[in-house]
């Protein structure tokens, strides 16, 4: 098989093709004037989707029925608590970061405790814990909007060598995730559980431990994204994670990860995240109204998933 | 113990939870123990019960509908605008929506698409259409719907009558009719049903069409209660309907659902919201308390499942 044909068979290729097509359509409209601005904006906003998407990808790869709906709530709580603790103080940056990660660990543990000990389906378990986490964030916030420390605010809005810093962080996280998934034993275990949990258990895979680590990892990544997003936005809002719920699921599936589990991939998340942002900005550029934007976004998502899914083997 | 077979045992937890919650509400606020009180408590449960039944029909064939909230909102907008000013056109639009649902069922089956992503895309489509139809809250409820939803039957309030009727219709449709058996078979073991000669395609398309029908009823009844509509009026119905089906003893895969349980689940979730405001719990924690209630009910179900398995093994 030639190199080109081999690339075209990768599950993530369609997300990049779609992203590229939309990017070109937007550039065409402005005659190339907005190329740098658009690309930087796309990388910045896609970075947050990528970080949560990576966590969601590991959870979905665990098998059918596994999905984490508590990502928005974790993002909100981590951002709120970290910012309030740091209190615009540059010296407390590391403390704030560690607290955010600790919140991710706590939420992940709670999620898996509900799933494993109470045998609640993951969708409902993560949904219930998201309610509790969201309430905690509301109670802790007290309606005050605290600004991030100047060091973090500058870092998250700046670029290095033309690439936004948050995108570089997303890239670093993606590399670690890729190594974990493709090269490490952890990734093999996750895929094995996703393909056949019973067989994996019989083969000696520590199923419970791997599932626990996966849910904790997803929550940690959500906390990291929340921490970065609140620094980037100049404060933590209580609804800041709302759009990331469906976005995290969409970028994973559009990126080529199988919904039934067992087959994850990292590059597709990049393609899908860029695609999701570029679609919205393309429609904005072409002057579509809010309703039309939503409608076309939905139709485009459906078109991409139809093109990307292989035919049923009858 | 023979009268208490497995199916009835499954209904025990939801029914007892509802009874316990209702008892608690009566104790805290004795004035609700009246015709008007009961009607007010369960009024808003009627559209939620219909939406939960729709979601149950889709979960019965092992799929998930993430567009339930936006679809019900769109139907509400159409009801408050077209159905009021031009009933024939409004009816045609709603029939078209049911047709679209049937088409979705066909496409998802034929192309082997993940229902999560397709319905996610459709949620944007319905949301966009709703926003284009009613950018700001407005519209008027048609007279006959308003009359139906505010009617005062003797002795038992309309809300209870409607809920019982919905539960019975759902029960007959799914548990007692030949068609219902085929549908549950498709959810349980698709290949066997296909080999037996039934058309899986036709069964799935009909399941989706029925779900669309009940969702349309949900939107119409909602407008009857609220008298006007808004593009975001029913967004929480997505997660509420899923939680209602699970609370009622249904499961995500295997075709194991209970229509009566689903309606009970919807009633419980509606009541929980009122219960929390009666308890004068700080608004910060109201969302979290709903999550806690979900967890408690499901923990109880776990205990009862263990008892059920011991019973079957005997």
Can you offer a commentary on this structure?
- The complex is a heterodimer of chains A (314) and B (314).
- With 314 residues, chain A is mostly helical.
- Chain A has helices at residues 3-8, 13-30, 35-61, 71-86, 93-117, 122-141, 150-157, 165-183, 185-195, 197-202, 207-233, 244-254, 267-285, 290-308; strands at 159-160, 163-164.
- In chain A, helix 2 runs parallel beside helix 13 and helix 4 packs parallel to helix 6 (122-141).
- The longest helix of chain A has 27 residues, at 35-61.
- The radius of gyration of chain A is 20 Å and the shape is globular.
- Chain B has 14 helices and no strands.
- Chain B has helices spanning 6-28, 35-42, 45-60, 68-85, 87-110, 115-133, 143-149, 158-176, 178-188, 190-195, 200-226, 237-247, 259-278, 283-313.
- In chain B, helix 4 (68-85) packs antiparallel against helix 5.
- The termini of chain B are close together.
- The interface between A and B is large, with 50 and 49 residues.
Output the keywords.
heterodimer; A: 314 residues; mainly alpha; two-stranded antiparallel sheet; 14 helices; 2 strands; globular; B: 314 residues; 0% strand
Would you spell out the secondary-structure blueprint of this structure?
The complex is a heterodimer of chains A (314) and B (314).
Chain A: H1 3-8, H2 13-30, H3 35-61, H4 71-86, H5 93-117, H6 122-141, H7 150-157, E1 159-160, E2 163-164, H8 165-183, H9 185-195, H10 197-202, H11 207-233, H12 244-254, H13 267-285, H14 290-308
Antiparallel strand pairs in A: 1-2
Helix pairs in contact in A: 2-13, 3-8, 3-11, 3-12, 3-13, 4-5, 4-6, 4-11, 5-6, 5-11, 7-11, 8-9, 9-11, 12-13, 13-14
Chain B: H1 6-28, H2 35-42, H3 45-60, H4 68-85, H5 87-110, H6 115-133, H7 143-149, H8 158-176, H9 178-188, H10 190-195, H11 200-226, H12 237-247, H13 259-278, H14 283-313
């Amino acid at each position: 098989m030639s190199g080109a044909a081999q690339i075209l068979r990768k599950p993530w290729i369609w997300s990049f093709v779609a992203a590229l097509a939309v990017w070109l359509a937007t550039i065409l409209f402005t005659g190339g004037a907005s190329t740098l601005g658009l690309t930087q904006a796309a990388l910045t906003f896609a970075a947050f989707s990528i970080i949560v998407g990576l966590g969601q990808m590991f959870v979905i790869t665990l098998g059918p029925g596994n999905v984490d709906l508590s990502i928005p709530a974790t993002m909100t709580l981590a951002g709120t608590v970290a910012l309030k603790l740091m209190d615009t103080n540059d010296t407390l940056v590391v403390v704030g970061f560690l607290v955010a990660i600790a919140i991710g660990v706590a939420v992940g543990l709670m999620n898996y405790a509900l799933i494993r000990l109470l045998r609640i389906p993951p969708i409902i378990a993560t949904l219930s814990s998201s309610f509790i986490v969201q309430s905690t964030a509301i109670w802790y916030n007290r309606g005050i909007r605290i600004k991030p420390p100047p060091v973090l605010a500058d870092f998250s809005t700046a670029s290095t060598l033309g690439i936004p810093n948050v995108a570089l962080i997303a890239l670093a996280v993606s590399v670690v995730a890729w190594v974990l998934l493709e090269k490490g034993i952890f990734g093999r275990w996750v895929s094995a559980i996703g393909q056949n949990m019973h067989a994996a258990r019989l083969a000696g895979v520590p199923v419970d431990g791997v599932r626990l680590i996966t849910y904790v990892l997803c929550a940690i990544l959500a906390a990291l994204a929340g921490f970065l997003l609140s620094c980037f936005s100049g404060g933590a809002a209580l609804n800041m994670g709302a759009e990331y719920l469906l976005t995290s699921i969409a970028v994973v599936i559009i990126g080529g990860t199988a919904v039934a589990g067992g087959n994850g991939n990292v590059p597709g998340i990049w393609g899908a995240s860029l695609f999701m942002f570029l679609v919205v900005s393309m429609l904005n550029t072409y002057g579509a109204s809010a309703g039309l934007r939503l409608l076309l976004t939905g139709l485009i998502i459906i078109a991409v998933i139809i093109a990307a899914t292989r035919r049923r083997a009858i | 113990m023979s009268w208490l077979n497995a199916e009835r045992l499954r209904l025990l937890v939801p029914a007892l939870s509802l009874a316990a919650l209702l008892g608690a509400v009566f104790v805290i606020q004795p004035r609700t123990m009246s015709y008007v009180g009961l009607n007010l408590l369960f009024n808003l449960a009627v559209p939620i019960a219909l939406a939960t039944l729709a979601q149950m029909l889709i979960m019965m064939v092992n799929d998930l509908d993430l567009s339930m909230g936006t679809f019900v909102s769109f139907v509400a907008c159409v009801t408050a605008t077209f159905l009021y000013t031009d009933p024939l056109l409004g009816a045609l639009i709603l029939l078209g929506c049911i047709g679209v649902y049937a088409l979705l069922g066909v496409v998802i089956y034929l192309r082997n698409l993940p229902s999560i992503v397709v319905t996610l895309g459709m949620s944007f489509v319905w949301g966009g259409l709703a926003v284009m139809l009613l950018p700001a809250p407005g519209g008027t409820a048609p007279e006959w719907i308003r009359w139906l939803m505010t009617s005062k039957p003797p002795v038992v309030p309309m809300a209870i009558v409607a809920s019982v009727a919905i539960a019975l219709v759902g029960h007959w449709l799914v548990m007692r009719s030949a068609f219902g058996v085929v549908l549950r078979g498709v959810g349980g073991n698709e290949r066997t049903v296909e080999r037996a000669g039934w058309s899986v395609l036709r069964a799935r398309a009909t399941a989706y069409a029925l779900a669309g029908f009940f969702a349309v009823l949900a939107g119409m009844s909602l407008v009857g209660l609220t008298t006007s509509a808004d593009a975001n009026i029913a967004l929480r119905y997505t997660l509420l309907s899923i939680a209602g089906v699970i609370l009622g003893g249904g499961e995500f895969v295997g075709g194991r659902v209970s229509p009566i349980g689903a309606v009970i689940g919807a009633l419980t979730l509606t009541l929980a919201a009122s219960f929390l405001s009666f308890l004068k719990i700080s608004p910060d924690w109201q969302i979290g308390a709903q999550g806690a209630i979900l967890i408690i009910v499901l923990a109880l179900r776990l205990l009862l499942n263990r008892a059920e398995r011991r019973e079957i093994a005997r």
